[in-house]
Amino acid sequence: GLSQYSSDPRTEWDLSAFSTREQVLEAVRNLRYKGGNTFTGLALTHVLEQNLKPDAGARLEAEKLVILLTDGKSQDDANQAAQTLKNLGIEIFAIGVKNADEAELRQVASEPLALTVYNVLDFPLLSSLVGKLTRVLCTRIKERSHKETTDTPVNMGPQLSPTDLKISAVTSKSMHLAWNPPPRPPKKYRVVYYPSKGGTPKEVVLEGAVSSLQLSNLTSQTEYLVSVIPVYDLAVGDGLRGVTATLPLSSPRSLRVSELSHNSLRLSWKAAQGATHYLVLCSAAPDGAED
């Protein structure tokens, strides 16, 4: 499977899209380069939520490996997103080209770094890594397959996934999430949310017995993307997704002017819900205007 990213990750093809080596190579030849920003954290979250799920061809009993290829320093928190993947047993290989930040590559990659971090000066030099990387990947898959076993059936996707995400009680700063848990309770939930027009994803981790959450400290009049992802010991179920915009900030109403004198006046208004302060601006009316 392959995804490209800038500020908005895009799945090019899923794990289940092709069944032969020739088909994959043909897809690579037809791939168009996606320029833009470098939101690596958002890309890694996309891989977890979109590419490593049963609907995209991820088999629960198979080893999960992610190869990150980047030519720049991330503009968001790549380390936190990478740690989430690693905590789920997903191994990350990091390959840097040109202006990639080696320190960041070493933070993102799994241990041992001698096998999982690579850096080259330009794109044509990537070909020099193919042989070694192929051998390392195959060896790691064999090692991990021998170490880990699971009794989770392959076809349990619906058993692992929550349903019916409801977003309610939306205000300018908050919203309430609730969902129906899957038949097989997860170990925990990851709730990821961020503005749809770009922004650093924020994450809340809940115990598997919890099926609701209040999101607070949001930005007013902003559309948010929300994902609820169930996490098991050796698997990640299909996530629930929703989109909701917060309300505009409340405004004061019914402005009244009273108690006028030669150098003063009194103002009164109906309060704006949630306001902590008011800024009052006063200026002389232009010549000829009504006083």
TrEMBL record:
InterPro entries: ECM_Assembly_Org, FN3_dom, FN3_sf, Ig-like_fold, VWF_A, vWFA_dom_sf. The keyword Secreted applies. Keywords: Extracellular matrix, Secreted. Residues 161-250 form the Fibronectin type-III domain. SMART domains: FN3 (SM00060), VWA (SM00327). SUPFAM superfamilies: Fibronectin type III, vWA-like. Residues 1-133 form the VWFA domain. It is found in: Secreted, Extracellular space, Extracellular matrix. This is COKA1 protein. It comes from Elachura formosa. The gene is Col20a1.
